[in-house]
Amino acid sequence: MTSITKSQNQIRLTADPHKPLSPAIYPTSVFLFENTAELIDFVEAKSPDRFEYARYGNPTRRAMEYVLAELEGAEDAVLCASGMAACTMPVLALLQNGDHLIFTSDSYLKTRTFIEKTLPAFGIATTIVEPDIQAVEAAIRPETKLVFTEMPTNPLYRVIDLEGLTSLCRKRGLISMIDSTLASPVNLNPIRHGADLVVHSMTKYFAGQNDLIAGGVAGRKDLVSQVRDRIGELGAILPAQECYRLYMSTKTMQLRVERQNATTLALAEYLEGHARIRKVYHPMLASNVDAEQARRYLRGGGCLFTIDIDGGFDQMRAFCDATKVFRIGPSFGSPESLLDPPVIMSHWNVAPEQRAAMGITDSMVRISVGLEDVNELKADLDQALQKAF
Ligand code: PLP
């Protein structure tokens, strides 16, 4: 990964005469023009580096867009209001009535809902397949335009053969788009493996402190430019203040993610041998069905793992209720460790048969590991497992 300091040094803040180390916040909706000649130059050039109205762009946002592009090795990037906007805006910008999209399973449920339920209402057909190349290839139709997958997936941490996928897409003239939220640029750079677009919920590792919601899209300049236009049209923008906060927290992202990689793997390995645990899911464990691909593509496994407790719904609840350091809450990538029982938190309204088909059991808990001491976390999990039985 490009170092965050290097990427932040390279951003085009040089126009600021004060040469600040961190970007200035521009709390304005309007940017002025000296005269009509300057305005004509602006409308002709269509550059994202000159600003007119803050729904289309803002220097603080642009500074963070340069950082995201640099970290992902992308030609360009655009920020938006949330990770959901980062997932939906490219689809709404690049596809139209009559097109077909392929998405993979074990995905963030709201993204799946958008794809399964909302897109068909716009005349966009969709197919959801397992995250593997053969399944994707079999689903391609003449009208297929885009293949969208997550890497790794969640909560089972499947890891697709990324280069196989991107070369298949290139051969068949399809756009490849990777939601790399769970990896972060610290652990994976999909563009460097041939992806056209990478999207992030920057709410997670980038923000890093559970204090804001943000999203970003990086990739090919021509595609990002269309996404930027659609964000400007639909209005899902990220305010300058939030861009500044993201910029500041990104300075420590590498340190945080590397620490979380190490602590999470240590906890996953520890619980894999625990008498009260039926199964542990973590990208880098040898027991992961995609362990080979995980080792090939990921520099680390991230801050999430999932346990299936060797009991039922009641033991799972007792375990969650007994933890003292881990708190019950969604999301991940923060300093605080969190627990998310998917059967309640995200899949409560999904029919039991469909939940089972998705691999979600009543005894599963997704664990998001924070920045606490590994021994403190281990002891907390241990005592909660003891109390659960
Ligand atoms: N993509 C993934 C993989 C996620 O986990 C999430 C949120 O948890 C999102 C997208 C949506 O992000 P946000 O909550 O920032 O809208």
TrEMBL record:
The protein's name: Cys/Met metabolism pyridoxal-phosphate-dependent protein
The keyword tRNA processing appears for this protein: no
Cofactors, names only: pyridoxal 5'-phosphate
Species in which this protein is naturally found: Leptonema illini DSM 21528
GO molecular function, one term: cystathionine gamma-synthase activity
Keyword Transport applies: no
GO biological process: methionine biosynthetic process; transsulfuration
Modified residues (N6-(pyridoxal phosphate)lysine): K204
